[in-house]
Specification:
The protein is built from ten helices and two strands; from the N terminus they run H-H-H-H-H-E-H-H-H-H-E-H. With 320 residues, the protein is mostly helical. Helix 2 runs antiparallel to helix 9.
Length: 320
């Protein structure tokens, strides 16, 4: 007996463009869920629905009595279903494509697992009264989802052969340092948020026991380290004459970092206004996407046909 995915695959063969659009939809929705989650926090709607998975003990949806905060929190919960639908579309499209690339299907299921884990962690966050450590974990899981959706979007346009480096080894090590430091920067950002003024609700919410200004300074130092590594990467890629698209990814990262750093300093010196915090959260997602795309551009996975043709081409050139 065929499982549902195999049944659909036997009756529908999506084009590569459809599969790529499905991967992009999952990526866009993984960023959107972060932004709406930030809106929940910044409007003080974190406990707008005071239980989980229902919105109240007696209602699955937000009630009129819960007002604006209930609507915001319930809307964010509903967006999880939209995200799940986008991931589901990717899984179905990847399974139905010809030839079937199991690597893409696996990446789709990894996305689904992260979404489900984060939904459960979101429920724990509500039931623990917006515990800041749970909130931080919620954001970090969302960050991991963005990484996987970015990788999936990239892999759609590649083959399944073993990756081949496009730059020397030291450059790839510099990329690993940049990626690791960016993760430290994002983690430090959750500490700033966890100890900062936007608790997510108007009630008395427990905060992380750190001085907010000190954590903000640590976060800024990490940001400057990321910027320095990004500049070094951009320069090194030019020195080694890296492919044009790789140098473009390094340039994109620098531009995003410049904008993100400016927003970060403005919000710090203007008492952290809600609008700028939301924009800064979007910037955090874009920085992470840019870092992942840069790392992926340092290697290539040609299609099976191209990989098979490469030795023949090399032999032909050597005989000329």
């Amino acid at each position: 007996m065929l499982n549902p995915l195999a049944y659909i695959a036997g009756r529908w063969t999506p084009s590569p463009r459809i599969v790529r659009r499905a991967a992009l939809a999952a990526l866009v929705m993984s960023v959107a869920i972060v932004i709406t989650g930030g809106a929940v926090r910044l409007t003080g709607s974190g406990l707008g629905c005071d239980t989980w998975p229902k919105c109240t003990d007696d209602s699955l949806i937000a009630t009129q009595e819960q007002g604006f905060h209930g609507a915001v929190e319930f809307g964010n919960r509903m967006l999880t279903y939209v995200l799940s639908a986008a991931v589901g579309w990717l899984i179905i499209a990847a399974r139905s494509a010809e030839p079937w690339r199991r690597s893409l299907t696996k990446l789709g299921w990894i996305q689904f697992a992260i979404v489900m884990c984060n939904a459960v962690l979101g429920g724990i966050t509500v039931m623990t009264g917006l515990n800041p450590y749970s909130v931080a974990g919620h954001f970090l899981l969302a960050t991991s989802l963005i990484a996987v959706t970015t990788v999936t979007w990239q892999r759609v346009g590649e083959g399944d052969t073993a990756p081949r480096p496009r730059v020397p080894g030291p450059v790839r090590k510099l990329s690993w340092a940049l990626t690791t430091t960016t993760l430290v920067l994002i983690a430090a950002g959750t500490v700033v948020t966890g100890s900062g003024p936007h608790a997510g609700d108007s009630s008395e919410i427990k905060r992380m026991p750190f001085d907010w200004e000190t954590t903000a300074h640590v976060h800024a130092v990490a940001a400057w380290v990321v910027c320095a590594l990004a500049v070094a990467m951009w320069l090194v890629l030019r020195v080694v004459d890296a492919p044009v698209d790789t140098r473009a990814r390094a340039r994109d990262l620098l531009l995003v970092l410049l904008a993100q750093g400016g927003i970060g300093y403005v919000q710090y010196f203007t008492d952290v206004p809600e609008v700028l915090v939301a924009v800064h959260m979007l910037g955090s997602c874009l920085v992470w996407i840019a870092v992942v795309r840069l790392a992926l551009s340092l290697r290539e996975r040609p299609s099976d046909e191209a990989a098979a043709q490469a030795p023949a081409d090399d032999a032909r050139l050597s005989s000329v």
